[in-house]
Structure prediction request, 206 residues.
Amino acid sequence: MLVTAMLAQTFAGQWESYKLETADPAGGIIMPDFDLDDFVQELRAAARQDEPVKKVRELMTEAFRDPAAIRAAMPEFENDDEILFEDDSVSIWFVRFMPGLHVPPHDHQTTATIGVYEGAEDNHFYLREPGRLVHKGTRRVEPGDVIALKPDGIHSVEAAGGQVTCGIHVYLAALTKIERSLFDWESGVARRYTDENYDAMKRVCT
Prediction:
């Protein structure tokens, strides 16, 4: 007999997080195999279904119950951001955050579902108010955690604990074609999301 529990949290309507824990009665964690190519195909199919947000979330939560299996199956990527697949319905990325850098506040303009399989990342959430960007909370995403951000959610990200963080990010649109924004750390003024603006606005962590 298996015991399965879905753990969930929400914040200000901007994000939800999930963690699926499956164990046998003796306390052992079930460790399924993971194949990246198969997983990408499953995500592609889920993105075309009637409830893509729900279907992608379920697939991600199920897969990330065993982050060690994902880590063992993932290839070595040269770049910190690698597109695993993209069409008009879904973008699937490998994303790596390096210690010492803080990604500037930004939105996605589509639902983003993020799972971490190595290290941990701190997601800082914000709301825009007149003349300022207000920090509203922080969520640490650790191996096995899955977090879903709504299209208008604003967050910044940094690797936690001085360790490299690796994950799979799924966006329900062609992310490279979306007009989205970066936000000034203090004023909240929106700037177009470009590589140049990103590099100018990222911070070095101390």
In short: The first strand starts at residue 3 and ends at 11. The chain has one domain: 3-204.
